[in-house]
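Record Alkylhydroperoxidase, 154 aa.
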Amino acid sequence: MSNRMKNPAEVIPQAYKGIGNLLAAVADGGLPETTTELIAMRVSSLNGCAACLQGHAVRVEEVGLPIEKIVGLAAYRESPFFSEAEKAALALADAVTRLADSEDAVPDELWREVTKHYDERQTAALILCIATHNLFNRVNVTVREDAENPFWMR
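=>
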């Protein structure tokens, strides 16, 4: 499958800078890198973004994600390999990625679970991480970004 056009972040370089600033803010939010990678992979999987999944497959070894978490990501709720904090973060990623699937997209019970494990700065980083990866996915799926040679790896 070929790209429909250049990635919009290539066409409008200011967009790439803005996305970079969002990622830097997430990195500064106090979350473990393993958590942000799990979120990125979960969101990308839900959105069917092969280019992003491929990009994150390269990072999992760098951040030290064990194979049990990578393989078990689709069934994180039932998996014994995820901490309660990771499960809360992933549930938030599911809810925010699928906003239209529920009348109350982020119910209070989920919010309480997230904020039980993460302070305000970390929760802000979680929200920005989820939103930024949804942005990446929506752009990349729309233009059919090449998973074998995405523009950010060229």
